[in-house]
Amino acid sequence: MKTGCHWTRLLIGLRPMVLDRDKYLCQEYLRNGRYTPTETVGYIKPKAHGGTDDLSNLESICRDCHKAKTARDRLNRN
């Protein structure tokens, strides 16, 4: 896991708020009508693409969706 300043802020303050707001459900799957519990939080718009640590740019996302989204984001970055 990354240990940079923004990750510390995310884990300490925002992560629980995001999970509560999203009812611990993967938002990627929920958009497709599927209810999948998760305890993972990720960026909607990656920091590498100009995203922020704002609550509005964070969502609950399961590990499988997070992995797939990260791969897509890396392709789009290049």
Automatic annotation (TrEMBL):
Which InterPro entries does UniProt cross-reference here? HNH, HNH_nuc
Q: Which residues form the HNH nuclease domain?
A: 13-67
Which GO molecular function terms does the record list?
endonuclease activity; nucleic acid binding; zinc ion binding
Q: What's the domain of life for this entry?
A: Bacteria
Q: Which UniProt keywords apply?
A: Endonuclease, Hydrolase, Nuclease
Kindly list the residue ranges recorded as spanning the membrane.
none
* UniProt-recorded name of the protein: HNH endonuclease
